[in-house]
Amino acid sequence: ETRIFSGVQPTGAIHIGNYFGAIEKWVSLQDEGNRTIYSIVDLHSITLPQDPFELRANILLMTATLIACGIDPKKSIIFQQSKVHQHTELFWVLSSLSTMARLSHLPQYKEKSANLKDVPLGLFIYPVLQAADILLYRSTHVPVGEDQEQHMQIAQTLARQFNNRFGLTFPSPQTIMAGDERNRIRSLREPGKKMSKSHQDAKSRIQLTDTPEQIVEKIKKSVTDHTSAVTYEPETRPGVSNLVLLHSLATGKTCEEICAEAKGMDTGRYKLEVADALIAHLKPIREEIERLQNSADFLQETLERGAERASFYAELTWRDVIDKVGLDIKH
Ligand code: AQP
User: Fold this and answer.
1) Average pLDDT over residues 162-168
2) Of 1, 200, 204, 313, which is the most buried if we count CB atoms within 10 A?
3) Four-point Cα dihedral 278, 282, 287, 290, nearest 10
4) Which residues contact 42 (CB under 8 A, 6 or more apart)?
Protein backbone atom coordinates (compact mmCIF):
# COMPACT_ATOMS: atom_id res chain seq x y z
CA GLU A 1 0.00 0.00 0.00
CA THR A 2 1.22 3.46 -0.90
CA ARG A 3 1.29 5.99 1.92
CA ILE A 4 2.34 9.52 1.04
CA PHE A 5 3.65 11.99 3.61
CA SER A 6 5.19 15.43 3.31
CA GLY A 7 5.56 18.61 5.33
CA VAL A 8 5.96 22.34 4.94
CA GLN A 9 7.14 24.88 7.49
CA PRO A 10 4.66 27.60 8.45
CA THR A 11 7.15 30.38 7.84
CA GLY A 12 4.92 32.92 6.07
CA ALA A 13 3.46 32.74 2.60
CA ILE A 14 4.96 30.04 0.40
CA HIS A 15 6.89 30.95 -2.73
CA ILE A 16 6.54 29.49 -6.21
CA GLY A 17 9.56 27.25 -5.54
CA ASN A 18 7.62 25.47 -2.79
CA TYR A 19 4.50 25.53 -4.94
CA PHE A 20 5.84 24.20 -8.26
CA GLY A 21 8.55 22.11 -6.59
CA ALA A 22 6.38 20.35 -4.01
CA ILE A 23 2.79 21.40 -3.33
CA GLU A 24 1.54 20.84 -6.91
CA LYS A 25 2.82 17.28 -6.66
CA TRP A 26 1.06 16.87 -3.30
CA VAL A 27 -2.20 17.80 -5.01
CA SER A 28 -1.78 15.41 -7.93
CA LEU A 29 -0.85 12.52 -5.62
CA GLN A 30 -4.01 13.24 -3.62
CA ASP A 31 -6.17 13.47 -6.73
CA GLU A 32 -4.82 10.15 -8.02
CA GLY A 33 -6.49 8.58 -4.99
CA ASN A 34 -3.44 7.85 -2.81
CA ARG A 35 -3.54 7.95 0.97
CA THR A 36 -1.98 11.37 1.60
CA ILE A 37 -0.93 12.98 4.87
CA TYR A 38 0.39 16.55 4.81
CA SER A 39 1.81 18.27 7.86
CA ILE A 40 2.37 21.89 8.76
CA VAL A 41 5.63 21.31 10.57
CA ASP A 42 5.54 24.06 13.18
CA LEU A 43 8.11 22.37 15.46
CA HIS A 44 10.65 22.78 12.65
CA SER A 45 9.92 26.50 12.52
CA ILE A 46 11.15 27.18 16.03
CA THR A 47 14.72 26.03 15.40
CA LEU A 48 15.60 29.65 14.59
CA PRO A 49 14.34 32.71 16.51
CA GLN A 50 10.67 33.44 15.74
CA ASP A 51 7.78 35.56 16.88
CA PRO A 52 4.91 33.68 18.65
CA PHE A 53 2.24 36.01 17.29
CA GLU A 54 3.49 35.56 13.72
CA LEU A 55 3.85 31.79 14.10
CA ARG A 56 0.19 31.44 15.13
CA ALA A 57 -0.93 33.55 12.18
CA ASN A 58 1.36 31.63 9.82
CA ILE A 59 -0.05 28.24 10.83
CA LEU A 60 -3.52 29.44 9.77
CA LEU A 61 -2.10 31.11 6.65
CA MET A 62 -0.43 27.83 5.65
CA THR A 63 -3.66 25.90 6.21
CA ALA A 64 -5.49 28.37 3.96
CA THR A 65 -2.69 28.20 1.40
CA LEU A 66 -2.68 24.40 1.17
CA ILE A 67 -6.44 24.30 0.73
CA ALA A 68 -6.31 27.10 -1.85
CA CYS A 69 -3.66 25.15 -3.78
CA GLY A 70 -5.99 22.17 -3.99
CA ILE A 71 -5.33 20.04 -0.89
CA ASP A 72 -8.78 18.82 0.06
CA PRO A 73 -9.21 18.09 3.81
CA LYS A 74 -11.77 15.43 2.91
CA LYS A 75 -9.26 13.53 0.78
CA SER A 76 -5.98 14.26 2.59
CA ILE A 77 -5.12 14.57 6.24
CA ILE A 78 -3.85 18.13 6.84
CA PHE A 79 -2.58 18.67 10.35
CA GLN A 80 -0.31 20.69 12.61
CA GLN A 81 2.74 18.66 13.67
CA SER A 82 2.87 19.87 17.31
CA LYS A 83 -0.72 18.65 17.87
CA VAL A 84 0.42 15.04 17.46
CA HIS A 85 2.79 14.43 20.37
CA GLN A 86 4.16 11.16 18.98
CA HIS A 87 6.36 13.13 16.54
CA THR A 88 8.65 14.33 19.33
CA GLU A 89 8.48 10.97 21.09
CA LEU A 90 9.59 8.98 18.06
CA PHE A 91 12.17 11.70 17.40
CA TRP A 92 13.78 10.89 20.76
CA VAL A 93 13.98 7.17 20.01
CA LEU A 94 15.51 7.89 16.59
CA SER A 95 17.95 10.46 17.96
CA SER A 96 19.56 7.67 19.95
CA LEU A 97 20.29 5.89 16.66
CA SER A 98 21.73 9.02 14.99
CA THR A 99 25.31 10.21 15.09
CA MET A 100 26.75 13.71 15.42
CA ALA A 101 29.18 13.02 12.56
CA ARG A 102 26.42 12.18 10.10
CA LEU A 103 24.29 15.21 10.93
CA SER A 104 27.13 17.72 10.92
CA HIS A 105 27.93 16.94 7.27
CA LEU A 106 24.51 17.91 5.94
CA PRO A 107 24.77 20.82 3.47
CA GLN A 108 21.62 22.57 4.70
CA TYR A 109 22.90 22.52 8.28
CA LYS A 110 26.29 23.85 7.20
CA GLU A 111 24.66 26.67 5.27
CA LYS A 112 22.20 27.70 7.96
CA SER A 113 24.70 27.50 10.82
CA ALA A 114 27.56 29.21 8.93
CA ASN A 115 26.69 32.72 10.13
CA LEU A 116 25.70 31.78 13.68
CA LYS A 117 28.11 32.18 16.59
CA ASP A 118 26.28 29.63 18.66
CA VAL A 119 24.25 26.96 16.86
CA PRO A 120 20.92 25.92 18.42
CA LEU A 121 20.77 22.15 18.98
CA GLY A 122 17.37 22.08 17.26
CA LEU A 123 18.88 23.34 14.02
CA PHE A 124 21.46 20.56 14.18
CA ILE A 125 19.13 17.71 14.98
CA TYR A 126 16.02 18.66 13.03
CA PRO A 127 16.59 16.12 10.20
CA VAL A 128 15.96 13.46 12.87
CA LEU A 129 12.61 15.07 13.70
CA GLN A 130 11.90 15.11 9.98
CA ALA A 131 12.68 11.37 9.83
CA ALA A 132 10.29 10.82 12.75
CA ASP A 133 7.57 12.80 10.90
CA ILE A 134 7.90 10.47 7.92
CA LEU A 135 8.34 7.16 9.72
CA LEU A 136 5.52 7.78 12.21
CA TYR A 137 3.02 7.17 9.39
CA ARG A 138 5.04 4.27 7.95
CA SER A 139 5.21 6.39 4.83
CA THR A 140 6.31 4.76 1.61
CA HIS A 141 6.72 7.90 -0.53
CA VAL A 142 7.70 11.49 0.22
CA PRO A 143 7.25 14.23 -2.40
CA VAL A 144 9.90 16.95 -1.84
CA GLY A 145 12.20 19.33 -3.71
CA GLU A 146 15.85 18.57 -4.47
CA ASP A 147 17.08 20.38 -1.33
CA GLN A 148 15.61 17.58 0.79
CA GLU A 149 17.51 14.72 -0.85
CA GLN A 150 20.11 14.36 1.92
CA HIS A 151 17.48 14.59 4.64
CA MET A 152 15.59 11.77 2.96
CA GLN A 153 18.74 9.66 3.16
CA ILE A 154 18.80 10.21 6.92
CA ALA A 155 15.20 8.97 7.15
CA GLN A 156 16.06 5.91 5.04
CA THR A 157 19.12 5.10 7.13
CA LEU A 158 17.19 5.45 10.39
CA ALA A 159 14.40 3.18 9.10
CA ARG A 160 16.99 0.56 8.19
CA GLN A 161 18.84 0.86 11.49
CA PHE A 162 15.67 0.59 13.52
CA ASN A 163 14.48 -2.42 11.50
CA ASN A 164 17.85 -4.17 11.85
CA ARG A 165 17.90 -3.69 15.57
CA PHE A 166 14.26 -4.22 16.55
CA GLY A 167 12.63 -6.09 13.65
CA LEU A 168 10.82 -4.92 10.54
CA THR A 169 8.81 -1.83 11.49
CA PHE A 170 9.25 0.90 8.88
CA PRO A 171 9.21 0.77 5.08
CA SER A 172 12.16 2.61 3.52
CA PRO A 173 10.57 5.92 2.42
CA GLN A 174 11.19 6.72 -1.25
CA THR A 175 11.69 10.28 -2.44
CA ILE A 176 9.28 11.42 -5.14
CA MET A 177 10.59 14.16 -7.38
CA ALA A 178 9.08 15.50 -10.56
CA GLY A 179 12.22 14.27 -12.34
CA ASP A 180 12.98 17.58 -13.99
CA GLU A 181 14.20 21.12 -13.28
CA ARG A 182 11.16 22.06 -11.22
CA ASN A 183 12.72 20.28 -8.25
CA ARG A 184 14.93 23.32 -7.99
CA ILE A 185 13.24 26.59 -8.84
CA ARG A 186 15.98 29.20 -8.84
CA SER A 187 16.28 32.52 -7.05
CA LEU A 188 15.30 35.50 -9.22
CA ARG A 189 18.29 37.46 -7.90
CA GLU A 190 20.95 34.73 -7.80
CA PRO A 191 19.99 32.07 -10.35
CA GLY A 192 22.87 29.89 -9.12
CA LYS A 193 20.92 29.33 -5.90
CA LYS A 194 17.49 27.88 -5.19
CA MET A 195 14.55 30.17 -4.51
CA SER A 196 14.28 30.29 -0.73
CA LYS A 197 12.11 31.99 1.83
CA SER A 198 15.01 32.78 4.12
CA HIS A 199 16.91 34.83 1.49
CA GLN A 200 17.10 38.45 2.73
CA ASP A 201 16.08 39.95 -0.60
CA ALA A 202 12.29 39.59 -1.04
CA LYS A 203 12.76 40.24 -4.78
CA SER A 204 14.48 36.86 -5.07
CA ARG A 205 11.15 35.02 -4.74
CA ILE A 206 7.52 35.33 -5.76
CA GLN A 207 5.03 34.48 -3.07
CA LEU A 208 1.59 33.06 -3.76
CA THR A 209 0.14 36.10 -2.00
CA ASP A 210 2.01 38.67 -4.15
CA THR A 211 -0.10 41.22 -6.03
CA PRO A 212 0.12 41.47 -9.85
CA GLU A 213 2.17 44.68 -9.44
CA GLN A 214 4.68 42.92 -7.16
CA ILE A 215 4.98 40.03 -9.61
CA VAL A 216 5.68 42.37 -12.55
CA GLU A 217 8.25 44.29 -10.50
CA LYS A 218 10.09 41.15 -9.35
CA ILE A 219 10.17 39.51 -12.79
CA LYS A 220 11.33 42.75 -14.43
CA LYS A 221 14.21 42.98 -11.95
CA SER A 222 15.11 39.29 -12.22
CA VAL A 223 18.73 38.61 -13.09
CA THR A 224 19.37 37.16 -16.55
CA ASP A 225 22.55 37.49 -18.66
CA HIS A 226 23.92 39.57 -21.52
CA THR A 227 22.37 37.51 -24.31
CA SER A 228 18.97 38.85 -25.32
CA ALA A 229 17.51 35.73 -26.98
CA VAL A 230 15.08 33.54 -25.04
CA THR A 231 16.46 30.01 -24.82
CA TYR A 232 16.17 27.11 -22.39
CA GLU A 233 19.67 26.11 -21.32
CA PRO A 234 19.57 25.60 -17.55
CA GLU A 235 23.30 24.80 -17.25
CA THR A 236 24.71 27.75 -19.14
CA ARG A 237 21.87 30.30 -18.89
CA PRO A 238 20.22 29.60 -15.51
CA GLY A 239 18.48 33.00 -15.19
CA VAL A 240 16.49 33.08 -18.42
CA SER A 241 15.94 29.30 -18.30
CA ASN A 242 14.34 29.68 -14.87
CA LEU A 243 11.89 32.19 -16.38
CA VAL A 244 11.11 29.82 -19.27
CA LEU A 245 10.53 27.02 -16.76
CA LEU A 246 8.21 29.16 -14.62
CA HIS A 247 6.35 30.23 -17.77
CA SER A 248 6.00 26.58 -18.77
CA LEU A 249 4.74 25.55 -15.33
CA ALA A 250 2.21 28.40 -15.31
CA THR A 251 0.82 27.67 -18.78
CA GLY A 252 1.26 23.92 -19.29
CA LYS A 253 3.24 24.57 -22.49
CA THR A 254 6.62 22.88 -22.93
CA CYS A 255 9.85 24.89 -22.66
CA GLU A 256 10.46 24.23 -26.40
CA GLU A 257 7.05 25.63 -27.36
CA ILE A 258 7.68 28.69 -25.24
CA CYS A 259 11.11 29.37 -26.76
CA ALA A 260 9.67 28.95 -30.27
CA GLU A 261 6.91 31.46 -29.47
CA ALA A 262 9.41 33.90 -27.99
CA LYS A 263 11.64 33.82 -31.06
CA GLY A 264 12.77 37.35 -31.94
CA MET A 265 11.69 38.71 -28.56
CA ASP A 266 14.36 40.14 -26.25
CA THR A 267 14.47 39.13 -22.58
CA GLY A 268 13.14 42.54 -21.45
CA ARG A 269 9.96 42.14 -23.49
CA TYR A 270 9.78 38.41 -22.66
CA LYS A 271 9.79 39.10 -18.91
CA LEU A 272 6.42 40.83 -19.25
CA GLU A 273 4.98 37.70 -20.86
CA VAL A 274 6.27 35.56 -17.99
CA ALA A 275 4.82 37.97 -15.44
CA ASP A 276 1.42 37.87 -17.18
CA ALA A 277 1.40 34.07 -17.23
CA LEU A 278 2.29 33.87 -13.53
CA ILE A 279 -0.30 36.49 -12.60
CA ALA A 280 -3.04 34.58 -14.45
CA HIS A 281 -2.02 31.25 -12.89
CA LEU A 282 -1.69 32.56 -9.33
CA LYS A 283 -4.75 34.86 -9.26
CA PRO A 284 -7.37 32.22 -8.29
CA ILE A 285 -5.04 30.82 -5.61
CA ARG A 286 -4.37 34.25 -4.11
CA GLU A 287 -8.08 35.08 -4.05
CA GLU A 288 -8.91 31.76 -2.42
CA ILE A 289 -6.22 32.27 0.25
CA GLU A 290 -7.73 35.67 1.06
CA ARG A 291 -11.23 34.23 1.21
CA LEU A 292 -10.18 31.36 3.50
CA GLN A 293 -8.22 33.64 5.79
CA ASN A 294 -11.51 35.27 6.70
CA SER A 295 -12.82 31.89 7.90
CA ALA A 296 -10.57 31.28 10.89
CA ASP A 297 -13.16 28.94 12.46
CA PHE A 298 -13.17 26.68 9.41
CA LEU A 299 -9.36 26.61 9.35
CA GLN A 300 -9.15 25.77 13.04
CA GLU A 301 -11.75 23.01 12.70
CA THR A 302 -9.86 21.58 9.73
CA LEU A 303 -6.68 21.42 11.81
CA GLU A 304 -8.46 19.84 14.75
CA ARG A 305 -10.01 17.13 12.62
CA GLY A 306 -6.70 16.58 10.86
CA ALA A 307 -4.87 16.15 14.18
CA GLU A 308 -7.41 13.59 15.36
CA ARG A 309 -7.05 11.53 12.20
CA ALA A 310 -3.22 11.77 12.17
CA SER A 311 -3.07 10.85 15.88
CA PHE A 312 -4.87 7.59 15.19
CA TYR A 313 -2.12 6.35 12.84
CA ALA A 314 0.65 7.91 14.94
CA GLU A 315 -0.50 6.05 18.04
CA LEU A 316 -0.53 2.70 16.24
CA THR A 317 3.11 3.13 15.20
CA TRP A 318 4.18 4.52 18.56
CA ARG A 319 2.65 1.56 20.47
CA ASP A 320 4.55 -0.79 18.19
CA VAL A 321 7.80 1.17 18.66
CA ILE A 322 7.71 1.34 22.47
CA ASP A 323 6.85 -2.33 22.57
CA LYS A 324 9.79 -3.27 20.33
CA VAL A 325 12.27 -0.98 22.10
CA GLY A 326 11.28 -2.38 25.50
CA LEU A 327 9.68 0.73 26.92
CA ASP A 328 6.35 -1.04 27.31
CA ILE A 329 6.46 -3.26 30.40
CA LYS A 330 3.02 -4.88 30.03
CA HIS A 331 4.12 -8.25 28.70
N1 AQP B 1 13.47 26.49 -4.83
C2 AQP B 1 12.79 25.37 -4.67
N3 AQP B 1 12.49 24.60 -5.75
C4 AQP B 1 11.79 23.46 -5.60
N5 AQP B 1 11.32 23.02 -4.41
C6 AQP B 1 11.57 23.75 -3.32
N7 AQP B 1 11.24 23.60 -2.00
C8 AQP B 1 11.76 24.64 -1.31
N9 AQP B 1 12.42 25.47 -2.13
C10 AQP B 1 12.32 24.96 -3.38
C11 AQP B 1 10.45 22.50 -1.47
O12 AQP B 1 9.31 23.03 -0.83
C13 AQP B 1 8.87 22.11 0.18
C14 AQP B 1 8.45 22.85 1.42
O15 AQP B 1 9.50 23.64 1.91
P16 AQP B 1 9.79 23.88 3.44
O17 AQP B 1 9.14 25.09 3.88
O18 AQP B 1 9.53 22.72 4.26
O19 AQP B 1 11.32 23.86 3.30
P20 AQP B 1 12.38 24.85 3.09
O21 AQP B 1 13.43 24.11 2.34
O22 AQP B 1 12.71 25.41 4.43
O23 AQP B 1 11.83 26.05 2.15
P24 AQP B 1 12.76 27.19 1.70
O25 AQP B 1 11.98 28.22 1.04
O26 AQP B 1 13.88 26.65 0.92
O27 AQP B 1 13.27 27.78 3.07
P28 AQP B 1 14.72 27.97 3.60
O29 AQP B 1 15.14 29.26 2.99
O30 AQP B 1 14.49 28.07 5.06
O31 AQP B 1 15.56 26.82 3.17
C32 AQP B 1 10.01 21.15 0.40
O33 AQP B 1 9.66 19.90 -0.17
C34 AQP B 1 11.16 21.74 -0.37
O35 AQP B 1 11.98 20.75 -0.92
Assistant:
1) 98
2) 204
3) -110
4) 9, 10, 55, 59, 80, 81, 82
| pLDDT (tens digit per residue) in 54-99 | 999 999 999 999 999 999 999 999 999 999 999 999 999 999 999 9
197 lines ligand 1 (CB under 6 A): yes
Give mean pLDDT, residues 299-326.
Answer: 98
Residue 135 has pLDDT above 90, yes or no: yes
ipTM of the complex: 0.94
Atom number in ligand 1 closest to CA 195: 1
- Tell me the C-alpha to C-alpha distance, in Å, between residue 186 and each of 21, 221, 267: 11, 14, 17
Active-site positions read 112, 194, 197
How far is residue 112 from each of residues 18, 50, 117, 271, measured CA to CA in Å? 18, 15, 11, 32
Query: What pLDDT, on a 0 to 100 scale, did the predictor assign at position 327?
Result: 94
Atom of ligand 1 nearest to the CA of 196: 25
Q: How far is the CA of 196 from the centre of ligand 1 (A)?
A: 6
pLDDT of residue 108: 87
